[in-house]
Specification:
This protein is mainly α. Helix content is 43%, strand content 6%. The longest helix is centred in the middle third of the chain and has 19 residues. The N terminus is likely disordered.
């Protein structure tokens, strides 16, 4: 009788790290929900926490964390620019091409916001949400600062204000020699 081969046990590959909803910012949760199997007409009902969390994990795994972080930074910066009325047509087009169904994005935003009420966000996710990423030409030209004049007839009344897309907290140092 021939000798039978004894196979050494194959080392198990480490399982991919599970996505934690706690480790995602609200914008990241919003993008993950948009990419998930969440129904387009989803409305929150009592007890939906677990289902929404499962969709967030599904969307995050579908996109991959790097793309999720990138898309969330774009949507967060675009939202800031849009709220300030500083979005450009180029940015509008980029946003519309990224999120083809505007109503689905609104539903995802609503669900992520409701979930945020009872589910905190980690410090790392909050730090990521403060990093701006603008898609397309910006009115500040990428400097983080917008110039203007209080009185067009008096050149001494010029000012600089921070760009909500590139410099949302106004902490970047303005470049020397910025002219308005």
């Amino acid at each position: 009788m021939p000798a039978s081969a004894v196979l050494a046990p194959v080392a198990a590959l480490p399982a991919p790290a599970a996505v934690s909803v706690y480790e995602l910012s609200n914008a990241e949760r919003r993008v993950a929900l948009y990419a998930s199997d969440m129904p387009d007409r989803f409305r929150w009902h009592k007890g939906d926490d677990a289902r929404v969390k499962a969709w967030i994990v599904q969307g995050a795994e579908r996109l991959g964390l790097e793309e999720l972080y990138r898309a969330a930074a774009f949507v967060q910066s675009y939202r800031r620019l849009w709220l300030a009325g500083l979005n450009t047509p180029e940015q509008d087009a980029a946003h519309a091409s990224r999120f083809l169904k505007a109503s689905r994005l609104v539903r995802a935003e609503e669900a992520a916001s409701v979930l945020l009420l009872g589910n905190k966000v980690s410090d790392a996710a909050l730090a990521r949400s403060a990093r701006p990423l603008v898609e397309g030409r910006c009115r500040c030209g990428g400097t983080g600062w917008l110039g203007g004049m209080f009185d067009p007839d008096d050149s001494a009344t010029c000012y600089l204000t921070n760009c909500p897309g590139h410099n949302p907290e106004g902490r970047a140092v303005p470049a020397l020699g910025v002219a308005v």
